[in-house]
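Input set for joint prediction.
Command: fold jointly, output tokens.
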Amino acid sequence: MATLELHSIVKRFKDNTVLDDVSLAVDDGEILVLFGPSGAGKTVLLRLIAGVLDADAGRIVIDGEDMTGVDAEFRGVGMAFQNFALFPHMDAFANIATPLEARKTPRDAVRAGVESVARLLKIDHVLTHRPRALSNGQKQRTALARALVGSPPVLLLDDPLRNVDAKLRFEMRLELPRLLADRGATVIYVTQDYKEAMALGDRIAVMGQAGIRQIGTPEEIYLQPAGLDIARLFGDPTINLLDVRPSRDGQGIHVALSGTRVELPAAMEPSVGRACVAGLRPETLHFVKAGTKGAVPVTIEAETPLNEKTVTLARTRGGREILVSRPAGTPGPDHGEAFLAVDAGSVLMFDKASGERIAAGGPAAPRKRATA
Amino acid sequence: MEHTSLIERILRGIALALVVVFFMFPLLWIFLMSFQTNETILSIPPQLFFTPTLQNYTALITGKLTSAAGTLDIAFMRNLWNSVFLSVTSVAVSLLLGVPAAYAFARHKFRGSEDIAFTLLSFRFAPPLLVLLPLTLYFQQLGLANTYFGLVWVYQLICLPLILWIVRGYFEDISADVEYAYRIAGHSWFATFRKIALPLAGPGIAAAGLLAFIFAWNNFVFALVLASADKQPVTVGALAFVTASGIQYGQIAAAIVLSIAPTLALALYAQRYLVEGLSLGAVKG
Amino acid sequence: MKAAQLALSGVDKFYGPVDRGVHAVKSLTMQLDEGEIVALLGSSGCGKTSTLRMIAGFEAVSRGTISVAGKPVHELPPVRRNVAMAFEGYSLYPPLTVRENIAFALKAARLSQAEVDAKVNEIAKLLEIEDILQRYPSSISGGQQQRASLGRALVRSASLHLLDEPMGQLEPQLRAVLRGRIKHFIKERGLTAILVTHDQTEANALADRIAVMEGGVLQQFDTPTVIKEKPANLFTGTFVGEPPMNVFAADATLEGGRVRLDLPQGVSLTYPESEFAPQVRDRLRALRQVVIGVRPYAVRRTTDGVAASVATNQWLGDQTHIAADFAGGTIVLVEHDRARVGIGDTIGIGIQPRHLHIFDAATGEAVVHGMELA
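tokens >
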């Protein structure tokens, strides 16, 4: 129902520049995830949009209207806070009703509005409870209901699932897309959890170094990260990073891993002869039989199951650690020696000095899991 | 570990009992004195058993002080009323001024805000005698001496800093996000102050008000210098019991009982708030 | 059979007077073999931390016995139990550097300086804290403090290593590799370790066996595989596993050579009777009211399955989580490829009988796993 534009936003706290020349445009009805480590300025950016903090420079435009300097109560945004920020002296009903009451909504309409959003979020049975008497999950849903109830055109969600347990977080992660889509709101969603970012975002803006490092669809961020730092933030287990120096001979471009020659696609041309870091996602590595062409010999150190996956910690001949993940229940190697096949098409190559990805020409390679 | 031995518990009980006796004995003794005549009070050895008399209280209420030298008019009930009026009005004015100021100091950090807040607090540190002489001169010139208005004004020196600092601590304890949430919901800053900040700081405001009331009630020096007999509170009025013909211990005791009764009752009633208010606001600030 | 490295026998813990206070741990009996890693898993207030504190000696045992390496220890003070512990709240000694913190117990054990240095350097490398060894606890991050605390516990030689929520604060990028290294470290040295955690992912990753606790009662004590494939009751089944097990109330009927499970909103699953062992059929016939559970990875999309409308499709890079409206609730599927289904699409839900868990609706006890009696 609204677009949101940020133009060259600057925000400083004393001598610390938290946001430096940040510009961003969010489409009508889009869910944009602000993702990054704590201290990256995500929450500050959200508060600038909400109008509870003022930017030192730059403009904030909501639906074509310049909102820079406009007080929070006139911006028409909804916001849910990480710590819920419920009003402790009001019951859940009164908490949720506050945005409607601000607009002098008739009492019947307030009741109807609160009850319908409470039913949607499955908290209609605790509306008479004060926040103190609510469970963490119910608090979080109450906070969300308060943000949603007025159907604000712009919805700001500040890590709303941070303070609930893993099970509730998972449940909400599945529920949220439909809830948000039904409201049609333009959403800015802040999180530190890459899974939430990938699951919920139409686009993800990765924050770092007082600005936006990369912005793109989950696919772009995961498959074509702009740099090492971004590649490391996405994926569990974390991407394997190995120092390599690709070279070329008559048979093509290749690197040496654990004393074995691993062929790389022709698109890796720009990396030849440079000090590079190869990024190998754990799920693109597969255990294969001894003697398979291009198989890298490794020693198995430990196997740790991880949520429907099995993660293996292996060590190369050169003593480097490699994490390999495979779907739980699929056969894996025995302890001791094993061999790994590297899916050359999915190798990410970064410049060692700058950490930036060395653009591999052509589209992202199709990702298909070979069976071990 | 979590078990304590029997001996430990007994010893702790004895220690606590000693502390209680040490602090409560004077109060108890005064309470007993107030029902005795001057003769029984001054008899040696002191009598533990005596025929209680209400004559001290009658003397106070009727305003006729009887001593060996004869009868003297005193304005004790008038003084008591003055105390109530001065304390209540001062605290009310302080709350009216101090609570919004405390909110401003807690929420809006501006250049010099710390300095202003600290200057206000320093009024509490300054010895009253230091300001008394110039104050008396000003008040006489301005015609404020010996008026309730002037006294209430001066009492702000006692009440305002106390309320400001305790309540500010309470406001700072309210998560700013809670207030932001109310603003974003579409309410003005004033509505946020009224509907969110005030109710949440309620216990702190009550504690601060109570404490300020006790301090105002107990004040002696300002009232001694700036008020004449008809505006004096009980603390000053009690001086009248020291007469040329001797000290009327029984009547003093009764006067003390009457004058501490309201504050004692208030303090007992709101003990929990007081402790909370002091530890949350003043210590932190 | 080897002697148990740690044995708890009929251990009770009451806060307040025995038999009248809060009953935090209820007649807990369990044994750990030497060289085993065991996780005490449960939500807060389940009794796992009380148990750990009783083993360490910070908390008195109300009833029962605890022995370490065959020797009763429950009346000994903590220092005489030969137990090393990593605390949840890091608890490093603030006036000592990270290096001194880790070396503390080694020096107390009168190791030579060279030995101390070698051990500290090894564990520091493993936990990636080499560059902060000279720093003081107050100047390092929470994750680093936790790694230092873990190092201090692991570096000691002790009969038993207790790790209280050892990885909760760790930087997410380090978690997977550190889990692997720590498991390797413990196994290589044959240490016996107890890990207390509320995070079932952690428990599954590190432990040889998991003790699931709830309400002070040990619910199940078995290997991660058995707990996943044969949960003893509904609690264990839904607590362990992420995404959690899908559960639905169902009516079981047997007629015409078929087993029929009626779920809410007219959804029914039918299987040939021959798929289930005869004893299973008898139990189902007797029970009727059941709860069925199926793990998300076991739910398949099939053309002949029960129709369900896709509510969301979330790709996480290496897994896809699909939620679909099913039987008045939501059913979750996990696929390891990228699934190309859109919101609102109709998919067929297939649940094979060998993936079915059936619980008694009244007691929550497991009745059937796969086609066999639990």
